[in-house]
């Protein structure tokens, strides 16, 4: 089958035996949903829901939340059972575009199975063309270099790639084939990125999948669906429509897109206003950490940097208590600060829920930030979980440091962003904390941290370097480490430490001779 041929998946020679859909896979969607799956989760779609390009989809009378989800569809090329993740992709013969339509008004009817929500007639458009996994010139299609895009009335609404999927395509085939036989022609829908939203009668929704870096930039072409209003309402002998603001927010993608008001403002100083932001806190000079300076810092021990700060009269620059969740990983970046205060029930009701300071801190992360949390050394509740760790990582943070606890610690570890923390604890932060302030001067692990301070960490611990002293301290520490390395080599060669560690005038002269030869 050429990638340029249009295919009707309703025809007997192309109709799949089953359609299996994945809930969440793209980091952008996971961050939006606020749920971080450890393993893939699936549901089935009826083959009678298949449509093709140019077809219409009806929104039942009396409903409002018919939502599109542009996706990549995998087509099984052979019958398989119990294959490994490494083998899984080789069992796919081609890919095509899909639109996993859903009616959020009926999500309550079949929670988990999605039977009525996702399997209506026309709810699974596929096509128009298939991109084979082996291209016409013999090139193998790269499953990590695909792109899916969705347009509504000509405006691009979804645009993402498969470069960093949580569950690679081979894993999906392997996972499903453990307990069920996947047959040639079966289709796996692989999740949608952020940007899924609600369509209205009269809208035209188009989905395209392509491989922009492959030879010839193969594409499925645009899968076109037109939304129309049905005159038929849901009958009263089954579940009828049921919608609340939560469903509206999830269907549209945000409260703002759904036209919902923000949570009612309090008469007390609000956590989301500037009234509790530290007015005198500095902002980061984000030009400090050049690539050459980063290299030099990463070659220098935190212990040596700490010693150089002490020589300059700064004795209390280490964040004491938190230990690395990922030993062997260094951290470096600009401090982004978040402060928790002790829980007081009336204030937690005001400021603990919704888009609170904790969530705002993670959503506002910039590349090269290190999120530093003041939790008063309280280990008896979580200040970080896997979803917010993932959000920080996706936004570009290099690490998270908390002098409190971490919840879902195994899942946080799997996210992979370096984390320093005091303890693991199963309780949510509301047991002991109120997220209070972003961007202020804080105390973490017994030292003061301001936004824009340079945070450096290794297995020994974390040090806070004032930006004004950065170059001076790093140059001196790097040189000290080089000298200490030379002394180590002399001791290894059999020289006694007396007069050598630290080096006296004679040994200093020998060291300078060695430096001159480098």
TrEMBL record:
<feature type="region of interest" description="Disordered">
    <location>
        <begin position="234"/>
        <end position="265"/>
    </location>
</feature>
<dbReference type="GO" id="GO:0016787">
    <property type="term" value="F:hydrolase activity"/>
</dbReference>
<dbReference type="InterPro" id="IPR036663">
    <property type="entry name" value="Fumarylacetoacetase_C_sf"/>
</dbReference>
<feature type="domain" description="Fumarylacetoacetase-like C-terminal">
    <location>
        <begin position="18"/>
        <end position="227"/>
    </location>
</feature>
<dbReference type="Pfam" id="PF03737">
    <property type="entry name" value="RraA-like"/>
</dbReference>
<dbReference type="InterPro" id="IPR036704">
    <property type="entry name" value="RraA/RraA-like_sf"/>
</dbReference>
<dbReference type="InterPro" id="IPR011234">
    <property type="entry name" value="Fumarylacetoacetase-like_C"/>
</dbReference>
<dbReference type="Pfam" id="PF01557">
    <property type="entry name" value="FAA_hydrolase"/>
</dbReference>
<keyword id="KW-0479">Metal-binding</keyword>
<keyword id="KW-0378">Hydrolase</keyword>
<dbReference type="InterPro" id="IPR005493">
    <property type="entry name" value="RraA/RraA-like"/>
</dbReference>
<protein>
    <submittedName>
        <fullName>Fumarylacetoacetate hydrolase family protein</fullName>
    </submittedName>
</protein>
